[in-house]
């Protein structure tokens, strides 16, 4: 009997200890607890994602994805004139929804294009500020992609395409507020002392998309008019991190209420196109768009609005060198096409990354982010390990490779670098070039001078920017 009591006591103690540990690792609905959650490591490793803005705004495809607001909210003269010229009197924004047809949307084709970009995660707009959901939401009757327009579950189809054809992480953007939802406007008129919209619409949507599609990124937006307490942001995040089906792998951004961007959440976005140019203490993301004037597709975009590959690679180099991720946006058409200029940029990016990916994926910021002498040279670094096989053992020696992303080919063939101090054993090679190590010399006053050989055009490793790898730096 005594032995049995002892065993029972031990079991009770073990269960109690397990419960204490479980409770200790549970996140509480407050920012000090939420912010203490470590960011899942995959996010920092992947470096590059693709943002996709797609919705009813893709039908007028004029001005920007804020078309409805500029038409009915800000009363933009250019948008009002556009509607008077092209649509009959009495035409409403809701009348655009049946024209959001997506008949040419092929999620497998999209997945192949996105994979070809070299990006490692994708974030699709599940709902923008217009309130239209790209999935059959139970709380968005007749204003979702199954009831009107495509008559398809766009989120579900793309999630399947991405997961079946790529190794990319799938994420979802979600706008907290809606410009003209009557419940939101009523809460706003009450100074956000009531929470009818949050309880009936915003938060139920978040639970729906997490439970149904298991996104590995929740990209929140549309939060800025109200405090996080109105949105119950910490309550949702505590559930997301403790009990959701993606609790161990999901990452979130910082847009959870007025005052939270750049202060609370998983990684910081701070504001659109955030690109500080200096190393940050907290993991961050630069969300930007290939069409510099809009996130959604717009038919009136001039060619000059689209970033060139030189601009895109420069933004990538600046972002990753300073510890950030780059989220590159495209806007598909109402019928579900990724237009050729977007596809071309994505495939060109992928071709560059096939050569130079070692300087980007899983890289870490170096002690210098950009060069101290020559502009347009950005640095990253990565731990390396070289192993030699012997008769009875394998000897591995660790080191650090430093990468210099050189945006401009030196006109004289000599690249002066002030940030890199070489040792006599230092070697320099160009990624993708098989011609052997580059010759270098010490630079008077510190640093080094790297001699670029005359490489025939047909042997150039890439077209836009070139990456030097330095090994055996002191």
Automatic annotation (TrEMBL):
Gene Ontology cellular-component terms listed: lysosome
Chain coiled-coil ranges: none
PROSITE patterns registered for this protein in UniProt: ALPHA_L_FUCOSIDASE (PS00385)
InterPro entries membership: FUC_metazoa-typ, Fucosidase_C, GH, Glyco_hydro_29, Glyco_hydro_29_CS, Glyco_hydro_29_N, Glyco_hydro_b
UniProt similarity note: Belongs to the glycosyl hydrolase 29 family.
Signal peptide: 1-24
EC numbers for this chain: 3.2.1.51
Residues with site note (May be important for catalysis): 287
Keyword list, A-Z: Glycoprotein, Glycosidase, Hydrolase, Signal
Catalytic activity: a neolactoside IV(2)-alpha-Fuc-nLc4Cer(d18:1(4E)) + H2O = a neolactoside nLc4Cer(d18:1(4E)) + L-fucose; a neolactoside IV(2)-alpha-Fuc-nLc4Cer(d18:0) + H2O = a neolactoside nLc4Cer(d18:0) + L-fucose
Residues covered by the Glycoside hydrolase family 29 N-terminal domain: 21-358
Name of this protein: alpha-L-fucosidase
GO terms for MF: alpha-L-fucosidase activity
Domain Alpha-L-fucosidase C-terminal: 369-470
Chain's role: Alpha-L-fucosidase is responsible for hydrolyzing the alpha-1,6-linked fucose joined to the reducing-end N-acetylglucosamine of the carbohydrate moieties of glycoproteins.
Domain of life: Eukaryota
GO biological process: fucose metabolic process; glycoside catabolic process
């Amino acid at each position: 009997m005594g032995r049995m009591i002892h065993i029972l006591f031990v079991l009770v103690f073990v269960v109690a200890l397990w419960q204490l540990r479980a409770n200790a690792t549970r996140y509480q609905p407050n920012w000090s607890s939420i912010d203490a959650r470590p960011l899942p490591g995959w996010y920092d490793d992947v470096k590059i994602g693709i943002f996709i803005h797609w919705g009813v705004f893709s039908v007028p495809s004029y001005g920007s994805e804020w078309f409805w607001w500029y038409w009915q909210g800000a009363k933009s003269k250019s948008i009002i004139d556009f509607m008077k010229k092209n649509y009959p009197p009495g035409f409403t924004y809701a009348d655009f929804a049946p024209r959001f047809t997506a008949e040419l949307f092929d999620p497998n084709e999209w997945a192949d294009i996105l994979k070809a970009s070299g990006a490692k995660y994708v974030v699709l707009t599940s709902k923008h500020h217009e309130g239209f959901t790209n999935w059959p939401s139970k709380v968005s009757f007749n204003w979702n992609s199954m009831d009107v327009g495509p008559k398809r579950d766009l989120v579900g189809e793309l999630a399947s395409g991405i997961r079946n054809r790529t190794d990319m992480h799938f994420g979802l953007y979600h706008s907290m507020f809606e410009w003209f939802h009557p419940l939101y406007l009523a809460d706003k008129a009450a100074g956000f002392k009531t929470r009818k919209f949050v309880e009936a619409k915003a938060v139920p949507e978040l639970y729906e998309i997490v439970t149904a599609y298991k996104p590995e990124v929740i990209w929140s937006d549309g939060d800025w008019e109200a405090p996080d307490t109105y949105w119950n942001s910490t309550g949702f995040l505590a559930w997301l991190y403790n009990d959701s089906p993606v609790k161990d792998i999901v990452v979130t951004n910082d847009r959870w209420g007025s005052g939270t961007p750049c202060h609370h959440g998983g990684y910081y976005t701070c504001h659109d196109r955030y690109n500080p140019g200096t190393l940050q203490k907290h993991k961050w993301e630069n969300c930007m768009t290939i069409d510099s004037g809009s996130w959604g597709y717009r038919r009136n975009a001039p060619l000059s609005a689209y970033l060139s590959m030189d601009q895109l690679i420069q933004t990538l180099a600046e972002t990753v060198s300073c510890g950030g991720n780059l989220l590159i946006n495209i806007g598909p058409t109402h019928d579900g096409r990724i237009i050729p200029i977007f596809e071309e940029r994505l495939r060109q990016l992928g071709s560059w990354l096939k050569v130079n990916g070692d300087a980007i994926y899983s890289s870490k910021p170096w002690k210098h982010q950009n060069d101290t002498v020559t502009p347009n040279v950005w640095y990253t670094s990565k731990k390396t390990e070289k192993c030699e096989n012997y008769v009875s053992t394998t000897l591995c020696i660790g080191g650090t490779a430093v990468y210099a992303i050189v945006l401009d080919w030196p006109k004289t063939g000599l690249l002066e670098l002030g940030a890199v101090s070489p040792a006599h054993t230092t070697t320099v090679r160009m990624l993708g070039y098989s011609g052997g190590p580059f010759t270098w010399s010490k630079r008077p006053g510190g640093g080094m001078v790297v001699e670029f050989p005359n490489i025939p055009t047909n042997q150039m490793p890439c077209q836009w920017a070139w990456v030097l790898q330095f090994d055996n730096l002191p």
